[in-house]
Amino acid sequence: MKTLSKLDSLALLIVLGLWSGNFVATKIGLNGIDVLFFSGWRFLIAGVCGLPFIKMPGKNLSYLLATSVVLGTIHFAFLMYGIHGAGAGASTIVYQLNVLFGVILGILLFGEQFSYLRFSCIVLAIAGLAVTFWQKSEFSASLALLSVVTAAFIFAYAQIMVKKIKGMPGFSINTWINLLAAPQMFLLSYIFEGNQWALIPQIPVNSIFALLYTSALSGVFAYGFWYYLLQKYPVGTILPMTLIVPLNGVILSVLLLGEIMTPELIFGGAMILLSVIGIYLHDQLKLLRFRRGIDK
Fold first, then answer.
1. Is 1 a domain residue?
2. Contacts of the segment 161-167: beta carbons below 8 A, 24+ positions apart
3. Is 21 within a domain?
4. Residue 8 needs a FRET pair 20 to 30 A away by CA distance; which of 2, 32, 141, 252 works?
């Protein structure tokens, strides 16, 4: 099992830093732009920004197309709807369930080790999710949180799809996914949201800046580094590191958006984050035992 080098650790910190503000920026952007239209522009801008890093896909084209549908269009449609309806703070906490979904998929699809600690963490996360849903009395808000949960599962599954793409740099993978997902999202926007192009002059300036942040910084640089790390290291090594994102995201949502953290959300969110920490500690213990076995 591989550990992060110093340079790759810096890359991961950059990813986590950019992602920390992503949910808040997305919420600001969605206040002035409809969900699917916002997502389409996000993919388009990110794809254009990534053109200098693009590499011809070759035999990976089919994998890239499938990944753009799952990780791009479907994943972001659920995620954006969830952020718009549930708020940035709640969404960034619930979205961390992608770590637990990654563990469950690893057990079911690849026969990874099933332990009492992992089982306990999964149960704790489910309980935390139940508490978090409890504080959302409105049906629309609960439906939005459920949309975030769905997006978290899709993200975890999509990481398996990304690992099947061979011989392409992370920035190139990211660019192709963005370019392929953009027309898909614009088509869905036209079908479900109508002609949004005519409303472009009415978009607030802060929504435009938020769109640029989520597309260029988070969409290009952060995801590009992420795909690079994902190809180089096991999913279980880098995925738990995203724990810092919800903590920073909640703080930013309170400071910048004025969102209120209810006791239910704080308690349920803490249960979810503790379950993620448990998974991370479990993987670190496995790594330590593996190293000791080699040294003997």
1. no
2. 161/63, 161/66, 161/67, 161/70, 161/71, 162/67, 162/71, 162/227, 162/230, 162/231, 163/230, 163/231, 163/235, 164/63, 165/60, 165/63, 165/64, 165/67, 165/231, 166/60, 167/58, 167/60
3. yes
4. 252
Helices (H), the chain: 6-20, 22-30, 35-49, 61-67, 75-86, 88-94, 97-110, 116-134, 139-162, 170-193, 205-212, 223-232, 235-238, 244-257, 263-295
In the block, tokens 């969830």 appear at 82
Domain count of the chain? 1
Q: Is residue 154 part of a domain?
A: yes
Q: Tell me: the pLDDT tens digits for 127-165?
A: 888 887 775 555 566 788 899 999 999 999 998 888 888
Share the mean pLDDT of the chain: 84
Domain that includes residue 170, residue range: 6-295
Structure tokens of 10?
A: 């810096």
The string of pLDDT tens digits covering residues 106-131 is 878 877 667 777 788 888 888 888 88
Would you say residue 273 lies in a domain?
Answer: yes
